[in-house]
């Protein structure tokens, strides 16, 4: 046991003590956090203020005045203000209170600066093709007066229906290249509002009355739990299963990959024969697996800790059932032992890392299945497909984690049965790996295939 | 006191190739054994089986009184032929780690690591990464790794390959020190000079078979000298004419020297007297076969003597092993 711990300690320090690990695993989350903080500031000044005119050919004579009123700077500012308040209300309370001025800045950025738009009413009989010409001007290279942003052509029957068919006409909009989509949206909204207003007026109805009757504010549901009730967080509900499975997959695959690399290196460096003169192959393999398991646990603890902190800041920690974390750890050990044993066997069998890729590809594709299918599995976690996968090692641990973190978790007995089946898979893989490891470590030459590995297992 | 190593009928095959065939060997405690043989003879496989790194297909073995080296790994020091170090690890840490793996975790380990490094003129490399060392330096570090924990049995596979003459001498002295301390030493080599200089017992393996197993003294006495080295006083003289002297079976010139093969029935004293009388010599020497001669004879398998030698060795070797068993 002492030798196993010595090997494990060296394995852990040789991996977790490297600059590549510290940068890749520890610094990356910090960088992501920093980017989240810095990006909004960089983006704040990004969109330039839009100044220009919107031409309209309005044969009805009813739409242009309403569009002019809609696109005044005052009206634009008012609507921005309303949107801003709506976004603020939709935001979780914790983020709103902790974010402070940064959140305000981010919201302002999302909405953009208020554009200065001038509506130019063209002669109803004007040539449309000639009217489009100013749109072709290159922005900034022409005089300010030539800064045409859009041309709207309203149909003759847009306000009063065609006498023959009884159908309303519509409008056409032509815009300059690279026009800010928010400005285009404002113009489209304005013309639609102006046409509807004109139609209502012509029909002898009262616009404000219709607006009042057709308006219902959107509401969000509230989730009721034993601990009380809170607004349903749909985004977190969707992310949670993927987050748990992703955490499991990343920590297992990362440490498994490290195990493969260090085993191949030991074989390539020929240090393995020296080690085998001091330890048994089993002690060496188990020590290496334990060492990289500690690396995986470190990664898991780090990212889980970050996740818990993020949930704390959203005041949504209650969303996580503590048993879920217990099962996460349990499935980590099982999945890691399965994948780690396989990686150790491959590392011992091959001559270099390139040869390892050939043997790993089919197995990696199987392990990635839950990741590819996370959406259908998390939407319907109790489908026959999901249930079958959650009892099939080596993917069982990942799929069961996905199901358990979903909105409709499986019954406890299914989770426990999955643990037992997955653990049996891990034991079988360890048995296979121990045999391949012992023979493979001192085998050099022709790259092995799966048939060779099976022959080695029979030999030993 | 049990023998350090006892092998009985050890056999190992790889596919269709028999690497070691029915090998019997007894190495007493405190002995210094040299295992010689050409490349691919089965030396490394034999050593790996002794160390339980590879398992024999057939046969029995005992190492330091245990049925397997697994039970005595901490008492064994091993320098493999395929040298290996953790490239990124610091030299001092590597040696301490390997010593701990061998069960040596005394409080003074760090100090001893430094002392050993100084002993092999590497006092300033403890904090360097292994990959920063030259090949020769790496080999010395690996040798330290094999002896630092004061093992009872030291197995060295081709310990002198890749070393310059100064370091070969240093390593040879260290091996002799360890032997003088009481450790049993078994080393393999195909550099016969070192086997002759160091060992008191030679085992030769060829194509998986043991073809020689005896003390160096016995080998020398059993294989009587059968050739005479002659250098004429007058360097221009044609010494080839001496081939007509009765008892001379053949002659070969090598620069200024001439090597005369004696007929099996010839008396060396009579032949040498006749040669000196016929032509004044600057050098006249009865040449003993070196280990290298025996080695080449057996490996080439062409000479009639090689066949006789092999038969004699087998007879003697089995008697030797039988006596021990």
Describe the structure.
The complex is a heterodimer of chains A (460) and B (325). Chain A has 460 residues and is of the alpha/beta class. Chain A folds into two domains: 50-219, no CATH class; 234-459, no CATH class. Chain A is 66% helix and 7% strand. Chain A has 20 helices and six strands. Chain A has a four-stranded mixed β-sheet. In chain A, a hairpin with a 2-residue loop joins strand 5 and strand 6. In chain A, helix 10 (234-268) packs antiparallel against helix 12 (281-313) and helix 12 (281-313) packs antiparallel against helix 13. Chain A is elongated, with a radius of gyration of 32 Å. Chain B is an alpha/beta fold. Chain B folds into three domains: 5-217, 3-Layer(aba) Sandwich (Rossmann fold); 224-287, Alpha-Beta Plaits (2-Layer Sandwich), CATH 3.30.70; 290-324, no CATH class. Chain B contains ten helices and 13 strands. In chain B, the strands form three sheets. A six-stranded mixed β-sheet of chain B has the order 5-6-7-3-8-9, with helices on both faces. A four-stranded antiparallel β-sheet of chain B has the order 11-12-10-13, covered by helices on one side. The longest helix of chain B has 21 residues, at 304-324. The radius of gyration of chain B is 23 Å and the shape is globular. The two termini of chain B are 14 Å apart. Chains A and B meet through helix 1 and helix 11 of A and helix 2 of B.
């Amino acid at each position: 046991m002492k030798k196993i711990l010595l090997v494990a300690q060296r394995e852990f320090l040789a991996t977790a003590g490297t600059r590549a690990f510290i940068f890749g695993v520890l610094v990356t989350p910090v960088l992501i956090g920093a980017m989240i903080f810095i990006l909004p500031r960089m983006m704040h000044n990004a969109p330039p203020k839009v100044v220009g005119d919107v031409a309209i050919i309005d044969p009805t004579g009813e739409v242009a005045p309403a569009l002019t009123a809609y696109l005044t700077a005052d009206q634009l500012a008012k609507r921005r203000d309303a949107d801003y308040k709506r976004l603020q209300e939709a935001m979780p309370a914790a983020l709103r209170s902790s974010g402070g001025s940064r959140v305000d800045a981010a919201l302002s950025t999302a909405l953009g600066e208020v554009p200065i738009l001038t509506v130019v009413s063209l002669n109803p009989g004007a040539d449309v093709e000639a009217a489009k010409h100013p749109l072709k001007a290159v922005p900034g290279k022409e005089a300010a007066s030539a800064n045409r942003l859009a041309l709207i052509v309203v149909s003759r029957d847009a306000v009063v229906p065609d006498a023959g068919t009884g159908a309303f006409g519509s409008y056409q909009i032509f815009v300059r290249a690279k026009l800010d989509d928010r400005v285009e949206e404002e113009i489209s909204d304005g013309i639609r509002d102006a046409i509807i207003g004109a139609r209502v007026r012509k029909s002898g109805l009262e616009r404000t009355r219709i607006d009042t009757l057709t308006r219902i504010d959107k509401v969000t549901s509230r989730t009721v739990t034993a601990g009380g009730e809170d607004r349903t967080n749909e985004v977190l509900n969707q992310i949670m299963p993927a987050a748990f499975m992703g955490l499991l997959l990343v920590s297992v695959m990362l440490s498994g990959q490290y195990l493969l690399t260090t085993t191949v290196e030991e074989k390539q460096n020929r240090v393995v024969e020296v080690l085998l003169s001091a330890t048994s192959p089993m002690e060496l393999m188990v020590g290496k697996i334990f060492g990289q398991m500690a690396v995986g646990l470190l990664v898991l603890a780090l990212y889980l800790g970050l996740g818990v902190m993020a949930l704390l800041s959203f005041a949504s920690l209650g969303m996580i059932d503590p048993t879920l974390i217990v099962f996460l750890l349990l499935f980590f050990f099982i999945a890691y032992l399965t994948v780690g044993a396989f990686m150790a066997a491959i590392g011992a069998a091959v001559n270099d890392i390139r040869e390892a890729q050939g043997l790993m590809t089919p197995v990696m594709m199987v392990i990635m299945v839950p990741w590819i299918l996370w959406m259908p599995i998390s939407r319907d976690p109790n489908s026959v497909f999901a249930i079958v996968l959650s009892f099939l090692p080596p993917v069982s641990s990942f799929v069961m984690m996905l199901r358990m973190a979903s909105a409709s978790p499986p019954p406890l007995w299914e989770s426990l049965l999955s643990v037992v089946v997955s653990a049996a898979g891990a034991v079988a893989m360890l048995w296979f790996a121990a045999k391949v490891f012992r023979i493979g470590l001192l085998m050099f030459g022709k790259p092995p295939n799966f048939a060779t590995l099976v022959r080695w297992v029979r030999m030993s | 006191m049990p023998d350090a190593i006892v092998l009985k009928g050890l056999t190992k095959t790889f596919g269709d190739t028999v690497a070691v065939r029915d090998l019997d060997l007894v190495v007493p405690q405190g002995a210094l054994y040299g295992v010689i043989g050409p490349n691919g003879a089965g030396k490394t496989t034999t050593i790996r089986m002794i160390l339980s790194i590879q398992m024999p297909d057939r046969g029995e073995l005992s190492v330091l009184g245990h049925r397997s080296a697994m039970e005595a790994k901490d008492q064994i020091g091993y320098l493999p032929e395929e040298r290996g170090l953790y490239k990124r690890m610091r030299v001092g840490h590597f040696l301490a780690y390997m010593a701990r793996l061998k069960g040596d975790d005394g409080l003074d380990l760090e100090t001893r690591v430094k002392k050993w490094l100084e002993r092999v003129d590497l006092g300033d490399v403890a904090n360097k990464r292994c990959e920063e060392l030259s090949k020769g330096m790496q080999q010395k570090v690996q040798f330290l790794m094999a002896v630092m924990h004061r093992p009872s049995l030291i197995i060295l596979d081709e310990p002198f390959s890749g070393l310059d003459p100064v370091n070969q001498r240093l390593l040879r002295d260290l091996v002799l020190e360890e032997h003088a301390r009481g450790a049993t030493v078994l080393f393999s080599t195909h550099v016969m000079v070192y086997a002759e200089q160091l060992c008191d017992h030679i085992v030769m393996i060829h194509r998986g078979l043991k073809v020689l197993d005896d003390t160096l003294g016995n080998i020398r006495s059993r294989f009587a000298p059968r050739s005479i080295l002659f250098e004429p006083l007058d360097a221009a003289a044609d010494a080839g004419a001496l081939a007509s002297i009765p008892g001379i079976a053949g002659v070969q010139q090598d620069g200024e020297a001439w090597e005369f093969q004696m007929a099996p029935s010839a008396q060396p004293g009579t032949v040498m007297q006749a040669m000196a009388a016929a032509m004044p010599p600057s050098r006249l020497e009865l040449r003993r076969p070196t280990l290298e001669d025996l080695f080449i004879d057996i490996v080439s398998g062409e000479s009639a003597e090689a066949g006789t030698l092999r038969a004699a060795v087998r007879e003697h070797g089995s008697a030797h092993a039988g006596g021990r068993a």
